[in-house]
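Example record used in the benchmark description.
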Amino acid sequence: MSSKYIVRQPIKDQSSNVIGYELLYYGENQAFGDDISSSSKEADVSAPSASNAPASSNDFAAANAIYNFLTQNTDKALTGTLNFMTFTPTLLMKKAPRIFKKSELVIQIEDNVIIHPLAMHFVQQFAKEGYKIAVNEFRFAPRYLALMDKIHYIKLNFATIAAPTLSNIIELAHSMGKKCIATNITSEELYNCAVNLHVDALEGTFVAERLSSKAHTSGYLQSNFFRLMVAVTQDEPDIDEIEQMVSQDASLVFGLLRMANSVYFSSTHRSTTIRQAIMTLGLGQLRQWIYLLSASNAENEIDPSSEEFLKLSFLRANFCSDLIDYTQNTLSISKGDAYLIGMFSTLGYLVDAPMEEILSEVPVVDEVKNALLYQEGSAGKLYALLLSYERADWDRISILADELHIPTNLLTSVYFDSVDRANIIWARITAPDASNLPDENE
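Model output (structure tokens):
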């Protein structure tokens, strides 16, 4: 049975603010979007064999897989964000875009849709209804230019198109009021090229992992601090609640573990978990530490891109921790250790110091440290699986999942459950008044 994966990758503006996510699909041994043979992408618009070719059973199977997933998940993980998604002719004819709210979807189309008369009829209908349209791999060709009044976004592959051609397309698009998104940005060189050509947004592995600037260790979430301060000042503080609040902020986890294992609190047993660190400090010292941090944090605002990495750390922590349940005891680390791998994976971006130096200040187990620094051991494979999934490295995902004995058909549901949980928790800890927000377990 072929593996099916659905991944989302961030699309960011030049200030590293996330404007939306692209949904990437892989299934039936084909990348999502190959509804018609790849040769049709280069076919002439007049070629009837390409434009009128019936979709194969595999095409319908892939379309049904993504359709079923969207039907089950649009009210959870995909709600509240702008989702860029490539629709095949089959999905367009199934009217799959209507699963989404118009304000939360950009319908992406490729050449196999443009040369497909019936599919293009649906695109034009969706555009008339108010859906936004994007074109992948835009080119200077009559059939592309004829679409300009229907499209809002032009997506350009910076790894395959020459800079002079890119410059001409971007200039033309901007003159017509269209936004340009640079795709496949995998290096700083391509990133700088896209910025210099004044694209409106960028996506790719380099973009996903880039911060506009380093945050400071004092850059904790102000709203989370308020709730934490309230929790620690109760007559009978709830340790479980305090542990949960701390666990939602990578910088807080790092700071707490470092404090609990400092010379001042040194003991024969080192604190390697959040709860151990809380018990080592004791409520009195914990209160003082939080008050001190809140005072220093009052003068510091986190830039939006840093917040995105804090949110990403929580998503990754849940994903890694949940995957432990499916590894059939092939890993020597606990769920708590797996949680720390995901939580600490973004510290290299959030703290202005090398990861080696950061990890030297907290007593994480060697398996966690080696996983984060070198992707070594079974824990390293778990971390590599996380990164491969985010990067849509389809072949690597399958290899690592098999080596960890994780059923590949569970990865997408586990990942999007983690996305949904992160979104709910994030809404709670960043909202001015969280009293009316749903509980994550509801």
